[in-house]
Amino acid sequence: MWPFIILTQLLALMSSVLFYWFFQPKQRLAKAGLFLSIFIINNVFLLYGLSEFWRERFHVYLVVGILQGFMFYAALITAVIALVYVYILKQKLRPKLIRAVAAITYIGIVGLAVFNAYSPVVHRLNVTTDKPLKRPLQIALVSDTHLGRWFGNRQIDKLVKLIDAQNPDVVVIAGDVMNDSTDAYDKTNMHAHLSKLTAPLGVYATLGNHDYSGNEVVIAKAVERAGIQVIDNKSVWLDDSVLLIGRSDETDPARPAATELLSEVRADKPVIFLEHSPADLEQIKGLPIDLHLSGHTHGGQIFPLTILLKWFTPLVYGAKYSEGTQFLVTSGYGIGAVPFRIGTRSEIWMITLQSVQ
What we know:
Blueprint: H1 2-23, H2 28-50, H3 56-88, H4 95-118, E1 121-129, E2 137-142, H5 153-166, E3 170-174, H6 183-187, H7 191-194, E4 203-206, H8 216-225, E5 229-230, E6 234-238, E7 242-246, E8 271-274, H9 281-284, E9 291-294, H10 305-308, E10 318-322, E11 325-329, E12 347-355
Parallel strand pairs: 1-12, 2-3, 3-4, 4-5, 7-8, 8-9, 9-11
Antiparallel strand pairs: 2-12, 6-7, 10-11
Helix pairs in contact: 1-2, 1-3, 2-3, 3-4
């Protein structure tokens, strides 16, 4: 906890210095007032967030903290531009112009982060299997919707429209359907919107760590009332041709090993394994699983986490084939705790599973 609090104060100090540079206060009282105001505002939001640690109130502070972090990004970019302007282009330093560039850069970073979060794209992946299939199976993969304060009915409607346009046979959701609770979901009647998500062979979901937050029973019931079948530690046959297996999140104390869920596997039928986290990829590869689908990582969501997560996660984002299994980790459709993405973008995946025969 203390390292985090120290970091928040360093952010406030950085913000104070940048505001001082930008506004150039002349009087001593104005200078002191600027620094004091920023520290007070920062710590009011911090105390508000810590009153509900890692829940909705804390997420509000994270938004404030990340907006301060974006100021640091803007300052670095502005410094580079200024150096190029003065030392390479041999132009005279113009402080007002540099401050204008800083403001435009900051607005651009925030605008891009919000755009990436709320403007989803559709990616495609073709997967082949040597097992016979009557016809290709079209699968829509969604993950990490995190329905809550920052992500609601408009985003659900967009999701339904995007998926309907792809005409999938089945839709699968790889966890974190809700952002810790159903409070915002119930308050804004998201049920009426989520229940429009349909597919000929059904819509299936596993729960993620934010679903297993003490409210997993309530969340599972809400999801199923919307017509989405929760398949944690269950399996279902799709068109009697493909076995879809779901597993609960690693935060579930009763979570079984992957091998315990393979009793219905048949040598001549493709197997899809759906779970929230890609943490067990080393244990999954080599098992009779054709396609493994997961999310959880958000692809890092915000630079530099997009790079740092690669040190801790077997596969942070994208597709990878290993020992007979095609793995796919999506960065997710939603946004998690904060409505920003830098270096990633909200997305869904359309996967075509087809036989080579």
